[in-house]
Recover the amino acids of this structure.
């Protein structure tokens, strides 16, 4: 514990990633990464605040937390900062009505959002939903807008599943950016606003978190 | 004819695009663009050399020419410069064995190419073939190579069909470039080498062609 103590001097809270850090997704939901269940338990027993900050955009927070609990993690929905709820706040603030190119598993996060007559596109890690037809539909919505707005939940290049590396939303974000000659707004890591909102939820300043 | 005469002073040959210039693709093959059948006929009756230079990568030259002839154009396979045959020359010269992410309609152009144990990826306008699964397979081939080589048949953002605008190969090229942190080699327009090969086939210098 001495090494931990030194590294964590002045630190009052810890932000933990989920995918690829606590577990690798895959068949049957995925598998915990060795030692991670125990590490989360130890952190929660310590004096540190703990929050989970993920770019997971295939699943709603409810489904993600359900999966993690089945894998043995001590985690609740209120402890998770995820891009879909953050995007919903932005959409509401700016009066944006999205065309959603997202995985069915995360669609419930957008239930309260008006998606009629779309004036922007929200793209998330849609997995097999990234068909040509769905990508083309998103492109056609964007290209007919006077000022196309593309909001991307994260900009990851790829992620690891138990079966291998998988293309992430960032690749498809780049495809739409290029086709429309625009730059996407990224909601999620590495956006500073996203980290700030997680810190606010912990009641900490940046220098107090690890 | 006076206006034509002035514009074409010193010009000995004409390179014509096909998709979006001679015809728009779509249901049932597509439709000629108004006046284009007659324009090709007039050019061919003139003193000018005529060659067709296309980035069409969904169809083999044979199929493309068959379609254009049915639409009324006077065109033969030997008059067409297209990216797939140009890519085959490059693959042969450099000992590259491609994983092909291409439309079934153009696969016959690669019949003579060794595709075993791939050491590069060739991407073309695959249309509905741009599924997540197919894109991920191409990504997985690239990411395991020490020096990933991605050859893209054109880099168009989108093209027009009678039913609307459609995402072109360039968007998917950008997706793989971003995911792998590489830059694709483009075979087709606007690559100068591609135009040069078309000019060579006409026996003309750049300043002699329009």
């Amino acid at each position: 514990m001495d090494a931990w103590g030194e590294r964590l001097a002045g630190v009052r809270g810890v932000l933990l990633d989920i995918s690829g850090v606590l577990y690798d997704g895959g068949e049957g939901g995925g598998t915990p990464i060795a030692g991670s269940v125990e590490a989360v338990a130890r952190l929660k027993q310590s004096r540190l605040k703990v929050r989970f900050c993920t770019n997971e955009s295939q699943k709603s927070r409810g489904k993600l937390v359900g999966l993690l609990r089945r894998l043995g993690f001590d985690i609740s929905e209120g402890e998770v900062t995820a891009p879909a709820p953050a995007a919903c706040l932005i959409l509401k603030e700016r009066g944006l009505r999205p065309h959603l190119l997202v995985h069915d598993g995360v669609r419930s996060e957008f239930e309260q959002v008006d998606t009629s007559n779309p004036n922007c596109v929200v793209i998330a890690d849609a997995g097999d939903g990234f068909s040509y037809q769905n990508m083309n539909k998103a492109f056609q919505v964007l290209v007919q807008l006077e000022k196309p707005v593309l909001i991307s939940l994260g900009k990851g290049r790829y992620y690891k599943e138990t079966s291998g590396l998988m293309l992430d939303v960032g690749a498809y974000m780049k495809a739409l950016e290029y086709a429309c000659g625009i730059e996407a707004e990224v909601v999620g890591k590495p956006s500073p606003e996203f980290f700030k909102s997680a810190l606010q939820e912990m009641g900490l300043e940046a220098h107090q978190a690890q």
